[in-house]
Predict the structure of Xanthine dehydrogenase family protein subunit M.
Amino acid sequence: MNPFSYERAADAAAAIGLAKGNAAARYLGGGTNLVDLMRETVERPEMLVDVTGLPHGIEPRADGGLLIGASATNTALAADSHVRTHYPLLARAILAGASAQIRNMATVGGNILQRTRCRYFYDTAAACNKREPGAGCDARDGFNRYHAILGASPACVATHPSDMCVALAALDATVHLDGPDGPRSIALADLHRLPGDRPDIETELKPGELIAAVEIPPLPFARRSTYRKVRDRASYAFALVSVAAALDLAEDGTVRDVRLALGGVAHKPWRASAAEAALKGRPANPESFRAAAEVELAAATGLRDNGFKIELAKRTIVAVLGDLTGDEA
């Protein structure tokens, strides 16, 4: 057993003060990922700082956006009437992500900061550069059905597991941070890192920083949005491929604006910017959707077991956009 101390913080300042200078301290939200990793001895913190006392409100903003406290539970966010009406892709992504029991515990901040991982990360007998930099990556020549087809590196091919983050990436969400050097903000799409040669460094957070809130900007056409998750089984498996999309159509049936993000394909939630650019001004039909998907997946590379995900991602993009136009392919 790995001994650790436990402290409960009343607010962000107290949490930052407790963790300051202790590289082995970890912030604890619902614990649905961290406690699991501690049980497997993958994570060995010396101190847990409970941050569930941080703000948990879900507040519509005067400009039409939404501010979400880091300690809001996934259940509360998915059930919020404003979210369900104005950002249905977010509610659907959360409901696709985990069982009701886990959603009741998991916090927004914790969901965002869950570890990017695969089965080899949990197996302490396997070579894993995320656990031990320089050890190697057994997944590359092992069972890699669920692994990355975009943005991977020789050091790591794991995929980010969050469904909620894929929706937030599509919605241009901003993450508000607080830490020893004061508050700052970063786009959620820029928060997580691709693996490069240091897959153990997963985010752009500085030492001691924590998530205080998440803000979604106003996006009126997000009412026409959805989330689709393709997986091997319906009972809360990680995505093989997922797509979050919001679509704005002009009166002539062309794409006026679009938001698109992919899950299950990379080390981070993948904002499909190339596909978005290819779609704007084009007819909203299966041919345009397929052409945009081809552009986005042009750089995709499959491993022994996951090459099928390239075509699966293309077809899922086409199907989701078709669903939003009422003309599913």
Summary: Residues 225-325 form a domain with the Enolase-like; domain 1 fold (CATH 3.30.390.50). The CA atoms of residues 128 and 137 lie 5 Å apart.
